[in-house]
Write a structure and sequence with these properties.
L-2-Hydroxyisocaproate Dehydrogenase, Chain A, domain 2; elongated; NAD(P)-bd_dom_sf; Lactate/malate_DH_C; oxidoreductase; Malate_DH_type2; nine-stranded mixed beta sheet; Rossmann fold; 3 domains; malate dehydrogenase activity
């Protein structure tokens, strides 16, 4: 089989002549196949250069004709331009072209008009699609690469048919972002409408429906000096104030903003709330789900059960600082003990775990150091658990799941006597795309003291930024 590829400028008369000659051959010869590529005039030079470079060819002008050797795996063999194609047709098939110049020009004009009409139709179809705009900052963070395949899913965004994904990384370079864009496109996910990239704030957060902020300045090391911490706080504060201003100016009023990472979660979220004054503070969440899941993993190991069978663990306070894991509402399912029941049967964790001293001491310490231990061993952030934490929040917020309690950092002055001006991790419930603070919890003197300690720490961090 002879398979030829004919490419040319849409308005090129010689492309039109070669096209009609190829059509004649295809009609007369059953084993002759032609594939046509019509390129707009202002895009031709770039396309030709890229194609020749890829195939190690040298060619100028329009059209460009090559033969694909199907029996050799589709490898292309350059034929040349119109005269080369015409000579090949005369020599091998005894067919020539007698098209006049006027006809050539007429067909070329028709080709251009048809191409423009096709582009208009495609643009019109695209305009009918109303994609959900999802922005991710710190897009070169490993968490982003783990997150994206699961993010573009009806399980996370029910009732959404298309998503426009916008990748932003102020510290990255465009080449790295373009490589990431190509990888995402190659996933061939049906919900993905388009992917854009950027390394500056000029167009950031335009029409944003969802914003996921992953850039945090790195993990808070316990051995870091005060000066290093102050510098980190200053840099991250300036960035998040800018983010907040851009969100205020360009994002939708209903935007959902989730802050994730290892450092300064509460502070970063608080700065966004302060800077995006026209956006309701209920649209901002600092994700504590990763910390919740880490606590469940520690408990699961101690109790010899699956972490997924432990629910309603509460994280209070400063997610990446002084926090407290509260188990007063925690439940366990499928516990191997004297009292058992069906899969939906649960028991209060505190009623079957007698070692209260361990829960108040070693348990809290293990949760606090677990993530640092993982990153110390691998030399990388705990990307998988971070991504899972973000997805947990999104699913609850979008109504895809209905957890009884999900801890998150939010601005909630007045609840549990918390002060204004800070973002504090508290237990939430989600209904119809909105969250509310769980209010019927017991706050005894010890827990009250811990809440005051965390609130004071957050106020102090904010004063120093």
């Amino acid at each position: 089989m002879a398979k030829f590829v004919l490419a040319g400028k849409t308005d090129c008369p010689y492309y039109a002549k070669a096209e009609l000659l190829a059509d004649t051959l295809q009609q007369c010869l059953p084993d002759f196949k032609i594939h046509k590529i019509s390129i707009l005039p202002d895009e031709w030079k770039e396309w030709l250069g890229a194609t020749c470079e890829k195939n190690n060819w040298k060619h100028e002008g329009s059209p460009l004709v090559w033969r694909e050797l199907v029996e050799q795996g589709g490898k292309g063999m350059l034929l040349g331009g119109f005269n080369d194609f015409l000579e090949h047709c005369q020599d091998y098939y005894g067919i020539t072209s007698d098209m006049t110049t006027n006809v050539m020009l007429s067909v070329a004009a028709e080709n251009l008009e048809a191409k423009m009409n096709l582009i208009k139709e495609e643009q019109h179809r695209a305009s009918l699609i109303q994609p959900l705009h999802v922005w991710i900052t710190g897009a070169l963070n490993p968490t982003c690469q783990v997150l994206i395949p699961s993010l573009l899913s009806p399980e996370v965004f029910p009732n959404v048919s298309a998503i426009s994904l916008h990748l932003l990384d102020l510290e990255g370079n465009e080449e790295q972002l373009q490589s990431l864009r190509l990888e995402i496109e190659e996933l061939a996910i049906s919900m993905l409408h388009q992917v854009t990239t950027g390394t500056d704030l000029e167009r950031a957060f335009r029409k944003a429906d969802v914003i996921l902020l992953l850039d945090d300045g790195g993990h808070d090391g316990e051995n870091e000096g005060e000066e290093v911490k102050k510098k980190k706080v200053k840099v991250i504060s300036e960035r998040y104030k800018e983010y907040g201003q851009r969100i205020d100016a360009t994002a939708k009023e209903t935007v959902k903003v989730i802050v994730s990472g290892d450092s300064f979660l509460n502070l970063r979220c608080s700065l966004l709330v302060d800077s995006a004054r026209s956006i309701d503070s209920h649209q901002f969440i600092a994700a504590a789900a990763q910390l919740e899941n880490e606590a469940k993993a520690v408990l699961g190991k101690k109790m010899r059960m699956r972490p997924s069978d432990i629910t309603d663990v509460i994280v209070w306070g400063n997610i990446s600082g002084t926090f407290y894991i509260d188990l007063q509402r925690a439940k366990v399912f499928n516990h191997d003990g004297p009292i058992t029941g069906p899969a939906f049967f649960s028991q209060p964790l505190l009623s079957i775990f007698p070692d209260r001293k361990w829960l108040e001491t070693d348990f809290q310490h293990l949760v606090r150091t677990r993530r640092l231990a993982v990153t110390s061993k691998t030399g990388q952030v705990a990307a998988t658990s971070a991504a899972n934490g973000i997805l947990t929040v999104l699913k609850a917020w979008n109504g895809a799941t209905d957890p009884d309690v999900l801890s998150s950092g939010v601005a909630c002055p007045g609840h549990y006597s918390l002060p204004d001006g800070i973002v504090f991790s508290v237990p939430l419930t989600f209904t119809d795309g909105k969250w509310s603070v769980v209010s019927e919890l017991t706050v005894e003197n010890e827990l009250k003291y811990r809440l005051e300690l965390s609130a004071s720490e957050l106020q102090q961090v904010k004063l120093n930024q």
